[in-house]
Structure formats: C-alpha cells, structure tokens
Amino acid sequence: MTEINSLLTGFQTAFSAYHLALMAGGVLLGILVGVLPGLGAPNGVTLLLPLTFTMPPVAAIILLSSMYWGALFGGSTTSILFNIPGEPSSVATTFDGHPMARHGDAAKALATAFLSAGFGALVGVIVVTLIANLIADFALRFSPPEFFAVYLLTFCSYVSMSGGQPLKTLATLLIGLGLAAVGMDTVSGEMRLTFGAEPLVSGISFLAAVIGLYGIGELLVTVEEGLKFDGLQARMSWRVVWTTFREMPRHAVTLVRSTVIGCWMGITPGGPTAASFMSYGIAKRFSRRKAYFGKGEPEGVVAPEAADHAAGVSALLPMLALGVPGSATAAVMMGGLMIWGLQPGPMLFVEHHDFVWGLIASMYMANVVAVVLVLATIPLFSSILRAPFSIIGPLIIVVCLIGAYTISGKMFDVYLALGFGIVGYVFKKLDYPIAPLVLAMVLGDKSEDAFRQAMLLSDGSLSIFFANGLVGTIMSAALLLLGWALVSKLQILRAPKGA
Amino acid sequence: MILTRRSMELATAAAIAAFGGAMVAGSLQLSVGWAATGPQSGYFPFRLGLLLCTVSALLFVQAAVSVRDGTGFASREQLLRSLSMFGPTLLLVLAMPWVGCYAATAVYLLYMARVHGDFSWPRATAVALTTVLVLYLVFERWFQVPLAKGPIEAWLGLSA
C-alpha cells in the first residue's frame, strides 16, 4: 500500500490555498487557450512556461498541468458549439457533438462531453496512481541501451500509429532530431550544425518551435479559410447537467471501453488524438445504435471524450517515469521539468518523491476543479468567440510572439517562431504531422546520449541492443512497428494500380 | 488555383532534402566516425541527415507519382488572406528590436483593427492601448519578465 501512503503525502504537498488558486487559474487559462483557435494545449503550456521559471517546481507543474486539463475541456467546447475542434484530439467530438447542438441539445452535448471527460480523466489518474511505482521500479533496471531502445520504440510507434503517411511522420521526426542536434554537443562540447552563427550556439529552442508550428501556423491556416464562427448558443443549467449525469450509466460500456483505450494509448505513445479516433470508431462499430452515429448520438460524444482525457492524463506517466512523453503537451512539460533542473525518469521517483506525488495528487483535485469550472464558465468563454476574428487573430499572434521573446529574452527566438509558423502552415496543409517533430526535439539529445553511452559500454558493438531479454524485446518491438508501418504503406501504394 | 498541391508537395520534399543536406554538410565539418570515446559529435547528425535525404527522395517520388495535379494547395484569394495576416506580422517582428515590443504591438493592433476589423478610430485605439497596458502589467510587473524595449520606453524612463 505504498501507493496510498505516497498519494497521501502528495495531497499534503498539493493541498494549499496557493496551489488551489493556481489550479483554478491554470484551468481557466487552459479553457481560454482551448477555446481560441490557433492556441491549444501544447502552445498554451509553452507560452506559460517561461513565467514559471521562478516558481517552485511543484507549483509550476500544478499550474501547467491544470492548464492542460482546462485546454482539453475547452477544445471539446468549440467542437460542439462551433464545429471547430479547438484541439486535434477533439476532432472526433465534432462528429456527434455538433449535430446534437444543432438539434437544440447543446447543453446536453456539453454536459455529456464534460462528464465523460471527467470520468476518463479520473480513471486515468487512478491508473497512474496504481502503476506509477511499478513502472518506475521497472525502469530503475534500465541502463543506456534500454533507454535508447525505449526512445526508439517511441519514435517507431509514432511512425506506425499516427495514421496518415508514415514517410511524412518519419521525415518530421528526423527534422526534429536534426534540430535538436544544433548547438553544443553534450558529450564533447563541440559546436554542431551552427555554421558559425552565434545565435545557434545555444541550440534551437523547442519552445519557439512549438509556438510557431502550433500557434502561428495554425492561425495562418485559420485565416486562409476565412473563418466565420457560426456558433450555437448554449445555456448551461444545472438541471440539464443533473439529468445527463443520471443518464450516464446507460453509456457505461462505452465509457469504460473508451477509458481503457485512452489509458493504453496515453501510456504507449499513441497520444490523445489517436485514442479519441480509435475509441469513436470502435464505439460506432459495436453500438446497437450504430445508425444514429454522426447524427447526434450521445454515445458518439462519450467515446472520444472519455478516451481523449484518459489518454491526456495517462500521457504524463511515461513522461515522469521513463522520460518518454506520451503527447506533444507532455513533451513540452518534460522540457519544462528539465529547465527547472529535474531529470525525468525513474530516479525522479526516488529523488523528488514529493514533486511526483504532489503532481499526481493535484491531478485528482485539478480535474474536479476543471469539471466544475468548465460547466460554470462555458457560456462566458464561448461568447469570446463572437468577438470578430480580425481582432482575436492579431491578439493571439502578439501573445505568441511575446511568448517566444520571453523564452530567453532574445529576438532570435521570435524570428524562429515566425519561421516555424510558415513551416507549420505548409506542414499542416500537406498533412505532415507536427507532434513527432516536437517529441524528437525534446528527446533528441537524450536518445543520442543513450546511444553513445551504450556504444561506450559495448566498445562499438551494436549487439548490446540485443544483449539481454529486456532490451532485445524492446528493440525488436520497435523494429517490427517500423517495418510494419512501411510495408503496409507500400501495399497501399500498390492497391490503386490493381483496382 | 495559383499553387497546386502537387507542386507544394514536391517543393516541400525538396526543402526537406536541403535541410538533410545541410545536416550532412554541417556534420562533415566535424568527425563523423568513431574514436576511443565512442561515436564522435558528427556521427549521429551525419547519419540522420543521410536518412532524411533518403526519406525526402522517397517523398518526392511519391508526390510525383501519386498526387494528381488537379487538387489545389491554396487559391489566390486564400493566399491573399494569409498574407494579409502574415505581412503585418512580419513587419511587427522586424520593428520589435528597434522600437520595442510595446510600441510595435500597439501600431500592429491599431492597423489590424482599423483595416481588417472595421473598428472606428476610438475603438481601435482603445483595443491597442488596453492590450499594451495589460501586457505591461502582466509581464513587467506581475511576472517580472522584461520585454523588448525601444526609445519610447527610454524616454518614459521605463527601460531599466
């Protein structure tokens, strides 16, 4: 029962008026960035990160993670009311959420989404609580070859699970790894890929990349589509919330199944987006009300929402215990951890017990705070979108650019953010996935270090990656995933010719 | 359509190849082989760069073979809309180091609200000044994170 004890000490750490205020503030900011187009969870957390450098790490992580939960809720709100997903992971919520709202059930659709999301998140936290120590203890047996194998597995599973075109995923991964290599080499201290340019010496900040790729790029796409917000009104009443709550047991099977999918996809790095699509697909496949899907079926809201939030929450576990983030936002938070001077990985559980369990305890509280706040404030936030986009858009741009400046007080990061904005615009339009690039930028140095240390151990023999059962299994799984993704792609290429 | 999807796919693959090529070239300035201390500093980026060049070549071929010319990337109208946002933003970024972030932001917001938002002068000014004031209070006062300053801040004695 060490988990219970750890959790109790965690609550002692996390439960204070200051932390509760941070949770509420984080959740509200999160809902705001979730609702606004062009700002999502990865970007919002990135913009807030430089402001946390002076905070104690526990307070900082509570603020950032609360923002993450808020953004997940905000993203589903715009899906339902405006048919515009605020987050990639809430795309599947538009399929049935928006039709429900059009039929006049906006409040019920929102309540269904928030309650399923809350359920998914709570189960996600419980899963994290129960298996966190287990995974950390397991990972304590890891040495450099195992760590490299785990990183490789992460990269390969992105290539195979991200849907879309595996070659494009592979390309963005490699670009991310290349960008991570810029600057001082962590082993020899030599300058790499700087071509003599002074600003490149300290490397390319992944925060500037996230701001550009997710924020500015997304906004350029939005402007191009000449976006008009034809939103539907939502008046939340606690009576609707209560009746929806009483109806939830009807969707018990979908709820549990979607949560399991979500937890699985969050812990293995499939991420919330893949989880919500998969869960929606499976719910549709097995539902008795299959014919109603896409026309405003509540089950079609329950499935993606529960999975999305379960995945979002459980994505923090591999980030803490293995140093492998399960989603783009988790990758940004992991970058934050390293900036605060904490090394993610199994030793974090030993050396910074209070930090880890304070965070886990705060996840229980913050998700409850988030459900209550989002239900209470959603009419207010959706009214923001009724302000003209020609003023909201430029305001978001200003916030992004200033956010880039605050990373280290250099104009260079602002130029980078703008440059990455163009890249993000093109990538988004050509279906190049962005999350792998961010993940690779955060993990780049760590995976290279692990590889080089492993090579030192083995005197340059690659056989060290198959030297024992553990590392061999992880390596084989990684290579199988990669091979499978590329082979199945080749079959798709061949198919149209045969048809 | 002034930009076809096919041409953009090809151009992007070529740009990625150029990035891969830069990685290879940059690594070749270092040692890319082995030493007693294991793989040297150019080892990893060199091989990643080669791999990226290969992947981009495959992407290029894939686009050339399978993407038909019919689908568009962006119409003239769409490009103009993106540029109407991107152009002023570029100017904002270029102006920031010279006039400071507050003045540049105020002018940028004033312009966007007047030209694209059809705001009246008083409303546009109010939006711009309120934003700048909020930025000042949040960043300089509350979080004590200094933003880029210019001559106006110096004249007001705020640039310390």
Describe the structure.
The complex is a heterodimer of chains A (499) and B (160). With 499 residues, chain A is mainly alpha-helical. Chain A has one domain (2-490). Chain A is 75% helix and 1% strand. Chain A contains 20 helices and two strands. In chain A, strands 1-2 form a two-stranded antiparallel sheet. In chain A, a hairpin with a 6-residue loop joins strand 1 and strand 2. Chain A is globular, with a radius of gyration of 22 Å. Mean pLDDT of chain A is 86; it is low at 495-499. By secondary structure, chain B is mainly alpha-helical. Chain B folds into two domains: 3-74; 76-156, no CATH class. Chain B is built from six helices and four strands, in the order E-H-E-E-H-E-H-H-H-H. Chain B has helices at 5-28, 43-66, 76-99, 101-115, 121-142, 151-156; strands spanning 3-4, 34-35, 38-39, 72-74. In chain B, a hairpin with a 2-residue loop joins strand 2 and strand 3 (38-39). In chain B, helix 1 (5-28) runs antiparallel to helix 2 (43-66). Chain B is flat and about 60 Å long. The termini of chain B are far apart. Classes of the chains: A mainly alpha (499), B mainly alpha (160). At the A-B interface, helix 7, helix 8, helix 17, helix 18 and helix 19 of A face helix 1, strand 3, helix 2, helix 3 and helix 4 of B.
How would you concisely characterize the structure shown here?
The complex is a heterodimer of chains A (499) and B (160). Chain A contains 20 helices and two strands. Chain A is mainly α and 499 residues long.
Strand-residue fraction of chain A?
A: under 5%
Sketch the topology of chain A as an H/E string, one letter per element: HHHHHHHEEHHHHHHHHHHHHH
Distance between the termini of chain B: 51 Å
Structural class of chain A: mainly alpha
- Across the major sheet of chain A, the strand order is 1-2
| Fraction in helix of chain A | over 70%
